[in-house]
Write a structure and sequence with these properties.
The protein is α/β, with parallel strands linked by helices and 577 residues long. Helices cover 41% and strands 21% of the residues. The strands form four sheets. Strands 3-2-4-5-6 form a five-stranded parallel sheet, with helices on both faces.
Length: 577
């Protein structure tokens, strides 16, 4: 894949300090003022919340029975357990859906349920429930369907399942439509009348709350005479799905991610150990970055190109040799996925750059092709947003039907954009940042025009990406202890982004271009010298001797017993610019 440039002329936005609250946190929690400000920037305004954020513990999880319909779902599943009824878990094909399917399957199997699972094929069946699949499962004797990470938009399909005499239990976290499916129970904290206090769970988080509630009720019924399942053992998969789905890593999601990353680091599960091996994630600490960029793409690859049940087989495998075989299969699929993505990205960039020779870039990008693989266009759309910072929709056309994936930018609600153009769409769904759609081939051009018109309301300032900076510092304020304390805020992700600091008027020395387009240099301020790396900034070279304002994230690197405080640069601009 070519090393395309990302936008670097971002508008810097430096958070305003709250010195009074800083002082309170420093005094009561014994932390550095910088760490205190980082907590404040993440919306934390009291000592109790700050303490819970710094020390996320499983005991702070909410009561799962606060979720609407949880009691109904638990009663029905226990009835199925007692009657040995056939339970089918019907999951989505992404990481969130497959991890949710895996934990429900493993838990129900562990407590003696008659359980199986079904993952639809993305290209043949699409997202969510579909009638042919339901008919097949009915013929195989299924009595209860439990969805994971899907179902909330499947009104007609649930109605069809009801006509077959089934009870459907939906576990989902997507936006709730105006018509809620007539399921036996609907577990989704985003329902307006749901009292569950945290609304931003991933699908796997909703599923984990279900097994927490099940274990609690079974324990109360005296079911576990010979010992009960340890739910902590499932948190590696919960963390994997939560981080991969890019939900805010706060509240319960932070607890899941923090606790689960510890299990991912130990890799006791055969499937996780094999996945880490093929992903070249070394033994030791596993981070949210490892999940996002190495583990999750391999799990997703199967669902994008072939059948996602390979991922469930891997995560539920108990034989190390079988797990390694499945992990290698996913690794091969991931390589194939990367090649396909590269071809589509190169073609899309070619179209856009050719257009720019004659026109200014529109406020949105809408492209369609009969050659593009439906399973990877969402990833390519994200890459195009990184490059051009425009709401982007790519459509893969097969026959007379197009299936599209869209990605938004700050200040633009892409789902609202689709709603404004709904007369041209057969089906659509999603949320503010990402969405999917089905469209007839003949409506693509009209849809493009309507979507561009909707995006025309964006102002010029909206189309310049923002670099949010947590605090200005002098380089002499940084030391290993400060950085270690900053790292205590991990895991980082949406809602708890990796902290970015800035230092003004630093001098650049000994700069060089390394790799494909990266800038390595030393920087000095008040006689302290730091090593720095700026990925994708190689075209700025040479900058030796210049004084720059620098945005960066500090980190401590260890190699052969030596420690080096290094700066990972996110932005550079000459002083005065």
């Amino acid at each position: 894949m070519k090393n395309y440039k990302r936008i670097k002329n971002k508008r810097w936005f430096i958070q305003k300090p709250d010195e009074a609250l800083q002082e309170l946190f420093v005094r009561e929690l014994g932390i550095y003022p910088l760490t205190a400000q980082l907590l404040i920037n993440r919306g934390i305004s009291d000592i109790e919340s700050a303490f819970c954020f710094l020390s996320p513990e499983l005991k702070n999880l909410h009561n799962p029975f606060l979720m609407k319909d949880m009691d109904k779902a638990v009663v029905r599943i226990i009835e199925a357990l007692q009657k040995n009824e056939n339970i089918v878990i019907y999951g989505d094909y992404d990481v969130d859906g497959t991890t949710a399917t895996s934990i429900l399957y493993l838990f129900l199997k562990e407590i003696g349920a008659n359980v199986s699972y079904y993952i639809p094929e993305r290209l043949k069946e699409g997202y969510g429930l579909n009638k042919p699949a339901l008919e097949g499962l009915y013929k195989n004797g299924a009595k209860i369907i439990i969805t994971t990470d899907c179902g909330i938009s499947n009104y007609d399909e649930v109605l069809f399942a009801n006509s077959l005499g089934w009870d459907v239990i939906i576990t989902d976290h997507h936006e709730v439509p105006s018509r809620v499916p007539p399921a036996f129970a609907v577990l989704n904290p985003k329902q307006s009348d749901c009292n569950f206090p945290f609304k931003e769970l991933a699908g796997v988080g909703v599923a984990f709350n279900l097994i927490m509630a099940l274990r609690s009720r079974l324990r109360g019924n005296g079911y576990f005479a010979n010992g009960e399942p340890n739910l902590k053992n499932y948190l590696d998969l919960v963390a994997l799905g939560t981080i991969a789905d890019m939900v805010p890593l706060v509240d319960e999601n932070r607890i899941f991610a923090r606790s689960g990353l510890e299990l991912l680091s130990s890799a006791a599960r055969p499937g996780i150990k094999a996945l880490k091996d093929v992903s070249r994630v070394s033994n030791g600490s596993t981070t949210s970055g490892h999940v996002s960029f190495q583990l999750a793409p391999r799990i997703n690859a199967a669902g994008r190109l072939e059948k996602a049940d390979t991922s469930v087989k891997l995560m539920t495998a108990d034989n190390p040799d079988e797990a390694l075989r499945l992990a290698r299969e996913l690794d091969r699929e991931n390589s194939a996925r990367q090649n396909i993505e590269s071809e589509i990205l190169n073609e899309a960039v070619g179209i856009i750059e050719d257009y720019l020779k004659r026109n200014n870039l529109d406020n949105a990008i809408v492209l369609a092709s009969e050659k593009w693989h439906q399973g990877v266009i969402g990833v390519v759309a994200s890459r195009l947003v990184d490059m051009y910072y425009r709401p982007t929709i790519l459509i893969s056309i097969s026959g007379e039907i197009g299936k599209g994936s869209g990605r938004g930018i700050r200040g633009f609600h892409i789902l609202e954009g689709l709603q404004a153009c709904s007369q041209y769409l057969e089906k659509f769904g999603g949320h503010k940042a990402a969405a999917g759609l089905n469209i007839n081939k003949g409506n693509v051009l009209a849809f493009r025009d309507a979507f561009l018109k909707f995006a025309s309301k964006l102002k010029e300032d909206d189309l310049i990406p923002r670099l949010s900076i947590d605090a200005p510092v002098h380089l002499d304020e940084l030391n290993e202890n400060v950085v270690r304390e900053i790292d205590s805020l991990a895991p980082f992700g949406l809602g708890n982004t990796e902290p970015i600091l800035c230092a003004k008027d630093v001098q650049i020395i000994q700069s060089q271009v390394v790799g494909t387009n990266h800038l390595r240099f030393k920087t000095t301020q008040k006689n302290r010298i730091f090593n720095a790396i700026a990925f994708g900034f190689g075209d700025m070279h040479p900058i030796d001797g210049k004084y720059m304002d620098m945005a960066f994230t500090p980190c401590v690197e260890e190699w052969n017993g030596n420690k080096d405080l290094k700066l990972n640069v996110k932005g550079l601009k000459e002083v005065g610019h």
